[in-house]
Amino acid sequence: MGQFLLRLSSKFTYAKKIILATCLLLLSLVISLYYNWKILEEKIEGVQRQQQGVQNISLVKKLLENISRHAVMLVSMQLDRTVYQNDIIQMQAQISADFRKLGLGAFKSRVPYSGFASNSSAEDLGGKWNLFLENIKDEGNAHSMVRFSAIAERLKLRLLYLGSKSAVFASEEIPYFLSQLALVELPRGQSLVTQMILLTTDKKQEKAPISALKALLEQHAKNLENLMEVASLNEEDSLRKNLGVYLKFIFEIISKAEAVASSKTFNELSAMTELGIKTLRENSLAWNTALENMDFTLSAALNFFDTQRRWIVTSALALASLAFFVFLIGILQAYKPVQDMMQAIRTFKAGDLSVRIPITYPDEIGAFGILLNQIADKFEETYRQLEKTGTSLSICSGSISDASKQLETTAIEQETASKQIAVNAKEISATAKEFSNTLNNMSTIGEEASALANAGMTGLSKMESTMQQMIEASASIATKLAVLSEKAQTVTNIITTISKVAQQTNLLSLNAAIEAEKAGEHGRSFAVISREIRRLAEQTAYATIDIEKMINEMVSAVSSSVMGVDKFTEEIHQGVTYIRSVGEQLTQIIDQVQKQMTSFENVNVGMLNQSQGAAQITEAINQWSESAQQATFSIRKFHQTVAQLSQTSQQMHDVVHYIKQRM
Fold first, then answer.
1. What is the pTM of this model?
2. Where are the domains of the chain?
């Protein structure tokens, strides 16, 4: 696979490779930019959808708040007709307009069965609202509460639907506690507070439903406290302040609900309705703050994603511009030096050795150009040296040719003379050999006698050398026995120390046994250990005594061995003295024989020298003759080589002349 890619790559020029690599880089950048853009677009669309959902939630929230406040104001107006009359009329018109604006009739098919009318699941909520207004004066507050509860439940379902459809619940940007506050707990609080006011101001209502609502309000307050704890809001946060005031009113409603329901006095009922209106107002403030925080969070996320999108576009454009700029600079930087290099190589190929590549940039191409210039310098220098060598070679080849001819003539003359000298040398050698044979027979007898004497002398020398080695070996043995005696004495000292340690250990174990006996039952195990230590110490003492005896016996044996070795050495010295005496006598005999042989040897040596000299002369003459023949042959071959050298020199001269003409 790698070889295939290399072959495929070799079909493209470097410029094409750079363009292809740049296009692939830009393509990967475009793909990455596209996918990042798509991801950011999806996130931005999701945040915008959530913002639209928050706006729709605000409309439903406003409608639920107005219905709740309207119900409480109606109760307050029943107690005092001069209170909130104008506000109620304006609020009724606003609520009706909000119903029409939201178009909740299209939502009714998605709302589950609410329970306030068996056949009302498909009816318009606006109609239910009108029915609630028509009957609130004639029916008690309990019946009105049921109708209000049905409408409130429908609106809360609408809130949940909007939160789910716009992905507010599953939003990564909106904190969990904000979505729970805005879509669950605060709408629930609106409904529960309104129902509690309607029930507590109903003169016919009993305590059981009030207790149930009270429990629901307590659970609602607990849920709010948990959400505040999860959110970790600081003391200065406006949402925490609003929720704190709202919870304060909730707890006040919880504490007064049963008392107001029992007494049913005008002042308490009026105070209860006013407390309900204040509670709903604080609920609305907290709800507004939560929605504002949600909108602020979404706006911040939208700004962040939009900033990221702009940053990606800017970065992509900057990177693309930078890549194009680097690509353009690279092409321009590489194109001209490569063209200059190619032109210089063409000129150099044509024969102009003086051309050099201009170095523009100190990069890889510049380094390659420097290397090519160095090669051109070396080539030009080699050319000059070659030209000089060719001239010198032509001159030398002519001189060598003349000398080889003269040498061939001289070699032929020497070959003829050597043959004549060889014949005379053979005759001299034959005469010398005959006289030498006679002298050899006379010297043979003397040599045999001298050989026997020399053999005896050699045997005596070997015997003396052997005895000398025995003396040295006995001295070494004595030295080692002395060292062994010293080591044995050291071991004796160590054994004495061990014996003393064993005695001391025995005493210590005895003392330990005495102390163990004093300790009674607690020292029994220690007494056993001390007995074992004493027994081991006694065994050690006995063993050291045995070792000491063995060492003493070994020392005695070593001393006896040293004495025996000394005696043996003395006997060897006496034998050496005797052998030396016999050797001196044999030396005198050999000297006498050698004196008799000297005369024969001198004559024999002289004749042998004469014979060898004649033989050497003959051999030298033969070798000289052969050398002369070889020299003649070599000179002829050398003459041919010189001719070839002259021809090669002429060819080199022609090549240099050709290069010079091309330059």
1. 0.45
2. 50-304, 366-662
